[in-house]
Amino acid sequence: MAGQNVLNGDLSVLDQIVSDLSEHKAKKEELEKLNDTLKELNKNIELTRKSISDEIDSKTKEGIDSVSKGFEQSISEEKVKLKEIQGKRDKAKHAGVKERIANETADLKEANLLISVEDIIHNVGHSERTEAVVEPYLSKQWFVKMRPLANKVLENQKNKDTKVNFVPTRYEKIMNHWMEITYDWCISRQLWWGHRIPAWYKGDEVYVGEVAPVGDGWVQDNDVLDTWFSSALWPFSTLGWPEETEDFKKFYPNNVLVTGYDIIPFWVNRMTFEGLHFTGKRPFKDCLIHGLIRDKQGRKMSKSLGNGVDPMDVIDTYGADALRFFLTTSSAAGTDLRYDEEKVKASWNFINKLWNASRFVLMNIEDLNALNFDNLKMEDKWILTSLNNTIKSVTKNMEHYDFNNVGTEIYSFVWNDFCDNYIEFAKFSLDDMTTKSVLCYVLSCILKMLHPFMPYVTDELYSNLPMHEENIILSEYPKYNKAEVFNKEYEEFNNIIEFIKVFRNVKLENKIGKDFGIKINNEEDYSLIMKLLRINLDEHKVVKGTKYSVIYKNYNLDIYYEKEVTEEDMMLLNKQISELESSIERRKKLLSNENYVAKAPKELVEKERFTLKAEEEKLAKLKNE
Fold this sequence. Notes:
Elements (H helix, E strand, L loop, with lengths): L11 H12 L4 H6 L1 H7 L7 H19 L4 H5 L1 H12 L7 H14 L32 E2 L2 H10 L8 E3 L4 H9 L4 E2 L1 E2 L9 E4 L2 E4 L10 E2 L3 E2 L1 H5 L2 H4 L8 H6 L2 E7 L3 H16 L4 E7 L2 E2 L16 H8 L1 H10 L7 E2 L2 H24 L13 H22 L3 H24 L6 H18 L4 H8 L24 H23 L7 E4 L6 H7 L12 E7 L2 E7 L5 H25 L2 H6 L2 H23 L1
Parallel strand pairs: 2-10, 9-10, 11-12
Antiparallel strand pairs: 1-3, 4-8, 5-6, 5-7, 13-15, 14-15
Helix pairs in contact: 3-4, 8-13, 9-13, 14-15, 15-16, 16-18, 16-19, 17-18, 17-19, 17-21, 18-19, 19-20, 21-22, 23-25
């Protein structure tokens, strides 16, 4: 740390310099060196204190240093100088500035020292609260010598075992860049709050230490430490440092810091070099970078644009969980997020879906005392397999901080697999203890996986399960269990689900009503399918009318339906036939090309042949209708 003497950027500096010049007329060489400075200081009446201080700062290196020894007493004793200048200027601090500058300009011109006068457009800074003109006051400050600390950070980042790992990795370049170009850091702040700088003064003596010096007459520095300096101590100072406490041993270095990319130089870098300096270790293993929240159009939120969003208003409308789930799962790490209320609403709908599904499960498992997986049916094995696949993928993505992928996977599993499919199948066997056990077990795992993203609703639902640990946040996170994976049943049940989708689409597209007949064309088991479709085959035996084939993998049946064929139906039929003929002709031409068949991937060629065969069969059926 070091003190630094600087000039007060007041207009009165001009008077002081002119006064000194008049007392040193013999020093012609020094006057000539100050010529440029004086010219800039007299450019325009509207020059603010900031303009003048900037000009003095820029010219100091060029001219003032060369004559500073001659004026050492007048520019070093800051208090004396300020009192002298203030006494002359108090009554007319701002009034008469134009006349004074005009007079002094005339004096310079008469002395043949004035080259030119130019107008400058500038802004005068004013206090937001008092509306007073902001006048820079440059004084002694405390600095941290940065080069040794920065070098330590750069060296540490070369070691893969001790470095701070950025997610995404591209943001490490920002840390390294700022450490390479760093300059000494001014840590003095003239504020009323913060850690007061541990420096005391008595006359010309300066004392720096953890405790106040012994003796009378010592006065502590009024400045406080820069906020970033104090907050950079957080990773270890909160754990009892400098004592080797149990918390410090257990939790330092921290696991991960989550922050925005805009404060990497101000906070992340400073935590890193302070951690390395004071403890010899990195402050945290990983640094997860998130983006900024922008408005729907991608603009930064600001008062001037009026596009800011009050989170409390969003919480009042949709709840804290909906907002939290949206913010944590809607963008990849390091990328900005566009705030869209419709997406928050979609999160709310998802939570509502989970709530209603959980209520259904809870109503039907009240008498469950222990989990029983002795009599697993195909649908039970399917949902357990899907659950474990989801747990495996979610765990992997959580470890890599890919929360957007986690959100997508859990959303898909809960909405599609659990709510839309398994619960619908479970309704046919709610008296079975195995079904109840699977419902309870799967719901419990869902709530645990979702808890980091929507803590309130998951905690409420978890506490109502008939079997649960004391608190969801203390419960064990779901683990992948290979014994609960049944790939054969999983694939077979997926075929059933897809067949049901095809069946419903055929009915919808052809506007088939309730009075239809069904003819099953093979020996596959259609019992589960008919249950979910709520079809009694005895009531749908009549097979007359137009035939509509429903085929998916091993499942094949025909729907018969009598309806009046309209002109619109014929147009649609002819359109389908025409599209199929064009597609078949294109595929035949492609497969007849020997170069394509020889060079294209085998899987792609086989896929084309399979599709061609399916289209030919469909075309033949359409022409027979």
